[in-house]
Design a protein that fits this description.
Blueprint lengths: L4 E7 L7 H12 L5 E7 L2 H6 L3 E3 L5 H5 L22 H13 L2 E8 L1 H16 L5 E6 L20 H22 L5 E6 L6 H4 L12 E4 L7 H15 L2 E6 L26 H12 L7 E4 L14 H19 L5 E7 L7 E7 H5 L19 H7 L12 E2 L2 E2 L22 H5 L1
Parallel strand pairs: 1-2, 1-4, 4-5, 5-10, 6-8, 6-9, 7-8
Antiparallel strand pairs: 2-3, 10-11, 12-13
Helix pairs in contact: 1-10, 8-9
């Protein structure tokens, strides 16, 4: 039998309520394969691997690994927004050195399209250098923008179902607020994450599948002006006396001073003006046909770390996606991402499979135009049928001790550093300031 080789797993990009359950599935499954030795985590993603900051996951208590199921976000092993560009040859060489120094034969990256591209590049380079590295991806993103618009590469990404469930509940609660305070505050504008893709704001419709609420939804994919929005919302006010409006954070209705991360993605929560604020400013300046004013509510990163609203379906699927990645790695199946594919039929069911990393990295899902209503103020029943099973029908079981959530707390068991200290290429300018 060949000697066991070690595994490095890392996370990239924005976190999700269930990202740690993918990590848990991967670690627990990998522990059962004799060909996989010590499992390390790159502390804060690929940056941690570059810095040779490798957290020993194999040495962690089993109870703490199990608690990753109910530990949201990425605090357990950290994440990053560090992009490996083709020109950063020193970074790629450093990764090879780290893998060699720690006998790494398996590299698993949890993330979105950019992460799948990184996993693919790293595995290809390592194999060109004779390292025999197995590179596997694990899907993650609350935006649901990984894959293709035909849903053939992946049906949905772990993380989306929980954020969709969050919004289904938030709109229900917002409706109670709006119904009670509408004489003074007839319009409540809610802003949802999602950058340029509308799956998250669309999930507001799951709060009201029978379309009984005075609800309008505006996705970034359907251009609209503030004047058109005002006409639509004022029309609803005349009919219903109040309005709940959900907008995508990427809706182009005003200059919000976009701030971009290292991947080139807009970080709307870092901008000086939110879309929701721009909308209520416009509505209040123009005037409402009823008394009172428009108000805004802009949830922040709570959308992607609120474990209380996590979908049990999402938790289970995230775990299985992690397990599948470990199985692919153990089989030596390099260059693939574990995926979730929906089975045909009226009853919701999925299977776990694999798709080439290169295909995922070079794809970008868009929200189907046919799922947006002709007037651009709502989504269709086809979307409801797609998204409804993902939010589940039960609450997650979350342990409490002394009234506080019991989260996973991993011990700081780091591998000995065997290489000279290294500053990632893209960080060098920052370190000189």
């Amino acid at each position: 039998m060949s000697k066991a080789r070690n595994m490095v797993v890392a996370q990239s990009g924005g976190p999700s309520p269930v990202i740690n359950n993918s990590l848990r599935g991967l670690v627990e499954a990998a522990r059962g394969f004799p060909q996989i030795g010590t499992i390390y985590a790159g502390w804060h993603g690929i940056e941690g691997v570059l810095k040779e900051e490798l957290l020993d996951l194999s040495g962690q208590p089993a109870d703490e690994i199990a608690l990753l199921r109910v530990t949201p976000a990425a605090g357990s092993i950290g994440t990053c927004r560090y992009k490996l560009r083709e020109s950063q040859t020193e970074d790629f060489e450093r990764l090879i050195e780290v893998f060699k120094a720690h006998n790494v034969g398996y590299f698993c990256y949890i993330g979105g399209n950019d992460s799948m591209d990184t996993a693919n590049k790293v595995a290809k380079l390592a194999n060109e250098r004779g390292l025999g590295l197995v590179g596997v991806g694990v899907p993650k993103t609350i935006d649901n923008d990984v894959g293709d618009s035909a849903f053939k590469l992946i049906d949905h990404t772990p993380g989306y179902g929980s954020t969709a469930r969050y919004w289904a509940h938030m709109v229900q609660f917002a409706n109670e607020e709006n119904a009670g305070s509408s004489p003074a505050d007839p319009v409540l504008v809610l802003q949802a994450m999602g950058r340029k893709i509308g799956f998250i704001p669309a999930s507001a419709r799951l709060a009201d599948p029978q379309r009984e609420l005075p609800l309008q939804i505006y996705l970034a994919e359907r251009p609209v002006t503030l004047e058109q929005m005002a006409d639509n919302i004022n029309g609803l006010l005349r009919r219903a006396g109040r309005a709940i409006v959900v907008v995508s954070e990427g809706l182009q209705v005003a200059d919000i001073g976009e701030v971009k991360d290292s991947f080139g993605h807009t970080q709307f929560s870092s901008s000086h003006l939110t879309v929701a604020q721009a909308v209520i400013n416009g509505l209040n300046a123009r005037g409402l046909p009823v008394k009172g004013a428009a108000r805004a509510n802009v949830p922040g990163t709570d959308q992607r770390h609120n474990m209380i609203y996590a979908s049990t379906v999402d938790l289970d699927e995230a775990f299985r996606a992690g397990q599948m990645a470990a199985e692919l790695a153990a089989q030596g199946t390099s260059g693939y991402m574990s995926t979730i594919l929906r089975e045909p039929g009226e009853i919701y069911n999925v299977r776990y499979d694999k798709v080439p990393l290169a295909e995922v990295a070079n794809s970008e899902r868009t929200f189907p135009a046919s799922w947006i209503t002709p007037d651009g103020t709502d989504v269709t029943d086809d979307f409801i049928r797609y998204a409804r099973p993902l939010i589940g029908d039960d609450w997650p079981s979350i342990p409490l001790i002394d009234g506080r959530v019991r989260l996973a707390r991993l011990k700081p068991l780091f591998a000995d550093q065997r290489l000279p200290k290294y500053i990632p290429q893209a960080d060098r300018k920052l370190s000189q300031n």
